[in-house]
Amino acid sequence: MAGSGKRRRATVLDDDERRGRRRLEEAALLLHKIKDVLLRVLLVVQQLLQENKHCSKRDIYYMYPSMFVEQAIVDRAINDICILFKCSRHNLNVVPVAKGLVMGWIRFVEGEKKVYCITNVNAAFPIPVSIEAIKDVVSVAHYILVVEKEAGKRLPRYSNKKACALSFLRYLVEQLHLPAYCLVDSDPYGFDILATYKFGSMQLAYDANVLRVPEIRWLGVFTSDFEEYCLPDCCQLQLSSEDRRKLEGILTRCYLHKEAPEWRLKLEAMLEMGVKFEIEALSASSISFLSQEYIPQQIRLGRLIWVYYVNVQRATC
Questions:
Q1: Could you give the residue numbers annotated as active site?
Q2: What's the Cα-to-Cα distance from 213 to each of 218, 221, 239, 309, rounded to whole Å?
Q3: Which helix or strand (DSSP H or E) is residue 187 part of?
Q4: Which of 35, 51, 100, 162 is deepest in the core (most CB within 10 A)?
Q5: Which residue ranges make up each domain of the chain?
Q6: DSSP β-bridge partners for residue 144
Q7: How many CB atoms are located within 10 Å of the residue 212 CB?
Q8: 142-316 in CATH: which number?
Q9: 109 with 116: CB under 8 angstroms?
């Protein structure tokens, strides 16, 4: 019996040793893969810089999907390279993926690609990543409408992806000389998105001159719309404690007191009523109500809030 016990203990020790060696081999293999990924991404970046080209992180992933396995691996590699060289992704010629879509009565050329929304106004195309690549913009539209349905509750208030939408909108306003309207949810996150378009990002105030559209006007939706259009109670939600904290924080921003007092009144009404609702609530009675009645009526009757912003430095407040 004693002899068999010793053999069992010897077997256990052998298994532990094998597991230890396997872990070391796996760790060595992982380090080798990390090195291979970094080198591969560095080679791509080198080519981009040498040829003065740009691509997205998603483009890099699809160059070698079997090596990278998943997008997160490429993302980490890009971040590591930026840390290593103390630079931004922009310096590597790695650009953000286009955020959002454009559709309607417009056509333009992006690099070698012709984007003809005007031939099919119901088709949507990705927003261009690089404004420098746009030329020959033609439009017969009367205004530009920004419908922002970003899931702000789940994503950071500002990201590099939003820079695409901001810079493209600014470009269109400057080139076409059209009024721009913004339609957002009636909640603190919707307003935060609107404020970023108009006043610039509070996180990147030094970019406010470039990444903002001071001419944009707040089209809706407003807390008062709920009663005015007799929307069903099921579409109305109570502000959460997080919503209230965010709204109270927004109300302390200096531009709401100096440049946008009417906006502040709308937010105070939202806080007092303690309710919020989404853009889609306006489609409760009819799927076409929003596009055929609400938006045209707001523009025709001037039911919007237009604030002219004069001092970009105040965006840091």
A1: 62
A2: 12, 19, 29, 9
A3: none
A4: 162
A5: 2-94, 96-140, 142-316
A6: 180
A7: 23
A8: 3.40.1360.10
A9: no
